[in-house]
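Re-run with default settings, no changes from the original entry. Doing this only to confirm the output is reproducible before filing.
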Amino acid sequence: MYNLKIEKIDFNTGQRLDVERFLSAFNLFLDKDVDCTVVAKDKDEIVGTCSYAGKIIKCFAVKKGLQGEGIASKLITYITNDIFDKGIYETFIFTKPQNYYIFQDLNYHEVYATKEVVLLEGGMANVKRYVKGMYKESGLGEGKKAALVMNCNPFTLGHRYLIERASRENTQVVVFIVEENRSLFPFEVRVDLVKRGTKDLKNVHIVAGGDYIISSATFPSYFLRQEDERLKAYAKLDAGIFGKYISPVFHIDQRYVGTEPYCNVTKKYNDALLHVLPRYDIKVEVLQRFQQEGRAVSASEVRRLIKLGDWDKLKRLVPKTTYDFLISSNAKDIIERIKRSDSPH
């Protein structure tokens, strides 16, 4: 007979280490971005744990031999109620495929699975309805389209080169901007800079990426810059969701990416796109990155130059629209944040 107790842990105490040790037995990690972690205890022993970050439920495990004892249900119910109390009514779960059956009874449904990880959605989340809503809101017409997915933190001449090339080679081009607000440049600023910087390209349409394109729900390693064994699985997950759900609704038959000489996370993502998207009849066009002075232009280099205050060099890496924003009063808070930050984004 179990005297089960569910409780939140205090990250400022040694309880975090206790959870990390418990998860390590399942080859799992307690991610740095979690907002809350709960544990199930029998007396003083941890027999289960679960965490969430925003609307993402993860870092879930139940002690071997105790599956089927209702511990999973109690943990997920506690976590879900806590998330709902914050006014969040769509939830996602990362778990191993063998755990899927646990969550089916809790009304979670599979979005996409690789052999390493499965993404489930619950509450009001519905990928098919969401993508149809994205398409309707975009105002795009029928016909085949090429696509790019970009963060643009901020928009550089490198981004402009890729979009311009796609614009020349295709009748319609959709540029999905990563909507998750975990970059130094807020989403509203990033999307505005792309729109301003591509205004002359009449066949280019800028669309918010939403919850199912490089988000915490599909590719958390992108934001955490984690290069562990989960990176490849998450990259395949995001690529698969794009192929299975996004491309049919938006009529996308080609996706453009730039070569990635600096960031291993982005390079692994490109590799996943090359491996997964052809299964969905999507051609992946890999373009050599735009260079200045023998180096590929990157947003990370622009942020580094902002930190150094090297505006002359920076000016050669960005469109005039981006530069004009950066030297305006509207960018003051962002510039200060970049100078103080060690974030990769």
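The chain has 13 helices and 14 strands. The longest strand covers residues 45-53.
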